[in-house]
Amino acid sequence: MPELPEVETIRRDLESLLVGRVFAQPEVRLPKIVKSNQGEFAELLTNAEITGIDRVGKLLLFRLKDRPVSLHIHLKMTGQLIYRTDDRFVAGGHPWPALTTELPHKYTHLIFPFTDGTKLYFNDLRQFGFARLAPATEEEQVRQKFGLEPHDPEFTFDHFRSLLRGRKTILKAFLLNQQLIAGLGNIYADEVCFAAHVRPDRPTASLTETEQDRLFQACRDILAEAITHRGTTLHDYVDGNGEPGGYAKLLKVYGREGQHCLRCKNGVIAKIRLAGRGTHFCPNCQS
DNA sequence: GAGAGTGTTGTAAC
DNA sequence: GGTTACAACACTCT
After folding, report:
1. What's the number of CA atoms in the CB half-sphere (13 Å) around residue A38?
2. Strand B: which residues 95-134 of A lie within 7 A (CB)?
3. Nearest nucleotide (C1') to the CA of residue A126?
4. Is A152 exposed, middle or buried (0-12, 13-18, 19+ CB in 10 A)?
5. DSSP symbol at A268
6. DSSP label at A76?
7. How far apart are CA A251 and CA A235, in angstroms?
8. What pTM does this model have?
9. How far is A150 from A64, CA to CA, in rounded Å?
10. Does residue A97 surpass a pLDDT of 50?
11. Is the pLDDT of residue A73 over 80?
C-alpha cells in the first residue's frame, strides 16, 4: 500500500530508469487487472516510447510518445512495480527482498517488457490495483477528483481553513478525503494528528485556529519528510529499485499501539477504529 | 480452524 | 450534497 511518499519515490526512480525506453508487447497474466480493452491495450502500448512519468494523487501516469493515451497505473493497497535488467539483478545490482526473489511469481499479474530486453513487473497480492490506457480528456476528469497536495504552493493556510469550513465530520475522515487533500493515507494521517497534538477523533468543527495551523504545518512537514526518506516500509512495500523505504523507523504512532508514547513518555498509544480504519494516537498528549 | 484485520478508493446507502 | 459502510482480494494474526 503505497501512500503518496512511496508513490512519489517510485515515480522518481522509474522516471530516471525508463524515459526513452520503448515498450514491447505486454504480457497480461491476470486480465482483470487491465481496466481497458485488452486488444487495444497491447496494440497501443507496443512500440510506444516513454517520455515521462507523472503522478496525480497516488495514480501514476506514463507519458507515451506519439500515442493519444497515457498508461495509468494504480497500486492500491499491495501493488508493486519492479524494474529488472535481467533474471538475477535489479537496476543497480541490489539483491531482491524475499517476496520478489523469483520473478515473475504468482502475484505478478502484468509484465511490461521493453525492446532492449529489460522488464517492468506489476505485482499485486490483493489484486486491487489496475493498469489502463486513458486519453487526455479522462486524465482531466481524474485530476479534478483530487484536492491539492500539501506541498503545492496553492496549499496555503487560508486554503486549508476553507476546506474545514462548514464540514461536519471527524478529523481522521477529513484528512483521508482525497477530494479535499490529495496524498494523505492512513499511516500519515495518524502521524499528522500526532505531530499536531490533536486527537484524530475530534470533530473538525471543534478545532481551534491554533490547532488548525498545527495540522496545516504537520501535513506539509510529515509528507515532505517521508518523501525525503523514500516512504515507509511495511509488509510488501518496496520502492522502484526494490529497496525498502526509510521512514518506518520515524513513525511515532502508527503500529505502536500498547507502547509508551515517544514524546510524553507517560501515555500509552491507543488504537481505535475511525472512518473504518485502524487509528493510532496518544491519549495523553493529543487532545 | 474460524474470524478479524490489513496500506486504497469507488460505489451505494443513509 | 455530505458522510459513512462496504466491497474488491488474499493473505497474516489472534
Report:
1. 8
2. 126, 128
3. C9
4. middle
5. B
6. T
7. 15
8. 0.90
9. 28
10. no
11. yes
